[in-house]
Design brief:
Layout: E1 13-15, E2 20-22, H1 24-42, E3 49-53, H2 58-71, E4 76-83, H3 89-104, E5 108-112, H4 120-128, H5 136-154, E6 159-161, H6 166-176, H7 180-187, E7 192-193, E8 201-203, H8 211-220, H9 241-255, H10 259-279, E9 285-286, E10 293-294, H11 300-312
Parallel strand pairs: 3-4, 3-6, 4-5, 6-8
Antiparallel strand pairs: 1-2, 7-8, 9-10
Helix pairs in contact: 1-2, 1-8, 2-8, 4-5, 6-7, 6-9, 6-10, 7-10
The protein binds iron/sulfur cluster and zinc ion (ZN) (2 copies).
Length: 323
């Protein structure tokens, strides 16, 4: 039986790139050290109030607990749950996230998408009938990014932390290298991205940790996570470029342990900065409908929202007010 590298107790968690085994306690320490490194090395001291965006899945729950343990004493933390109005799924997720926020003694916030006049359930129906011209997950992604930023800005948070793992980040990275617009998003893909007017900064505490490691952290700490999958999740594995990249990188990592970690380090410490210096911040306009920063006018969220309102045949407000 393998033994923990630190204390010699029976070990059940393996970190292949470090060729190390850990017991549950020392695996948790390893995981939290990696999260701590992101906060210490990349997040400026001036960032005091952080909104932790939690969906109830393994990654965001791991990010929540590790962040609370690592910076809970020095930063003011709050938990944000976005109710997307996905029948059955959103209700179950909310109960889990609220439970964890209370257990950690953190303020629990809910941003309900219904305040914008539609739900992801509505969007899924319209997308399935082909009337939206894009898949529901792409609409949901735009909505989540918009709502978490707007909620943070309107509630005085300096930054939003998300549960994106190294696998997600490397997927965005390699997919982004294939177009000029993609390069701009790679330039912002560091563990910490600064904010601006009506734009909260972003923190990615799991930048140097894999999906598998967040699953192990959740298990080692006996944390409850969402049991069901979103009913709108793509059925076929392999769908989407980022998932293909993720699987390819996992294969490379099996033959060359540590490759993904090295890729993430060079992205964080060199590539994103070099690209940012070369490309600049890009043109930032204001959405003439909601007033939030965007590269297009109206912003992507307002465009989607108004289109869905039209298709639903409802009269909606102008979006100038947060629900
Ligand atoms: Fe949204 Fe798609 Fe994720 Fe469901 S699977 S929560 S629709 S992004
Ligand atoms: Zn140990
Ligand atoms: Zn807008």
């Amino acid at each position: 039986m393998p033994r923990c590298r630190v204390c010699g107790a029976p070990a059940s968690y393996r970190v292949p790139w470090a060729n190390a085994w850990f017991c549950p306690e020392h695996f948790s320490r390893y995981f939290e050290r990696k999260v701590s490194r992101v906060y210490e090395r990349y997040v400026p001291r001036s960032v005091e109030r952080i909104l932790l965006a939690v969906s109830g899945g393994k990654d965001s729950v791991a990010m929540l607990y590790a962040s609370a343990r690592v910076v809970g004493g020095e930063k003011e933390l709050g938990v944000l749950f976005i109710d997307l109005g996905i029948p059955g799924y959103s209700e179950e997720a909310r109960v889990i996230v609220e439970h964890h926020a209370h257990r950690l003694g953190l303020p629990f916030h809910v941003a309900d998408i219904r305040g914008y006049g539609f739900t992801i359930g509505d969007a899924a129906r319209l997308a399935a009938s082909g009337r939206l011209g894009r898949p529901v997950c792409s609409i949901c992604g735009v909505a989540k990014r918009y709502i978490m930023n707007r909620y943070a800005v309107e509630h005085g948070y300096d930054a939003v932390a998300t549960g994106h793992t190294m696998d997600d980040i490397l997927g965005f990275y390699l997919a982004g290298l294939s177009s000029r617009e993609g390069l701009r998003s790679v330039a912002k893909l560091s563990p910490y991205t600064g904010g601006g007017e009506k734009l909260a900064a972003r923190i990615r505490p799991l930048y140097f940790l894999t999906d598998a490691e967040s699953a192990m952290y959740v298990e080692a700490n006996g944390l409850e996570i969402l049991g069901s999958k979103c009913p709108f999740a793509p059925r076929r594995r392999g769908e989407g470029l980022r998932l293909t990249i993720k699987e390819a990188l996992e294969n490379i990592d099996r033959r060359h342990p540590g490759y993904r970690v090295m890729l993430a380090r060079t992205l964080a410490d060199h590539v994103s900065g070099i690209l940012y210096s070369a490309l600049g911040p890009g043109e930032t306009r204001r959405c003439s409908i909601c007033g939030y920063p965007s590269s297009t006018d109206p912003c992507g969220f307002c465009r989607i929202r108004l289109r869905i309102h039209r298709l639903l045949g409802e009269k909606q407000d102008t979006g100038s007010r947060h629900p």
